[in-house]
Amino acid sequence: MNKVVIAALVSLAVSGHATPALSQEVAPGQKLFQQRCGACHQLETPRNGVGPHLVGVVGRTAGSVDGFRYSAALKGSAIAWTAETLETFLSNPAAMVRGTRMAQRFNNADERRAIIAFLGAQ
């Protein structure tokens, strides 16, 4: 690329007229969700993958997404997903619900809280 084109692109990016993907900031919780949860869970569409979609997860009852095959333990847990229950679950899913298939643990409390805040804002 020549220097004029590069200068024009830099100017657009600095002025805020860049494409939305370049100008939008990503919240820390969103980035962590994408890195740590996105391989198994969908958030932008109500489509299940390896894990159930998490659209509207805060306030929902555990094991209640139609079309996802939950473990009997999670389905029968009657947990309502709140910031507090998600905090406990994400720190050690198997300790909270013995028999769950959720294996991912989030040992860093700040990362857990950022992900939960991001999920709550969706």
TrEMBL record:
Signal peptide interval: 1-23
Residue ranges annotated for the Cytochrome c domain, each copy included: 24-122
Alphabetized PROSITE patterns for the sequence: CYTC
Parts of the chain that traverse the membrane: none
Pfam family for this entry, one: Cytochrom_C
Entry keyword Metal-binding: yes
Keywords from the UniProt entry: Electron transport, Heme, Iron, Metal-binding, Plasmid, Signal, Transport
PANTHER family named in the record: CYTOCHROME C
Name of the protein in question: Cytochrome c family protein
Originating organism: Sinorhizobium kummerowiae
Organism lineage string: Bacteria, Pseudomonadati, Pseudomonadota, Alphaproteobacteria, Hyphomicrobiales
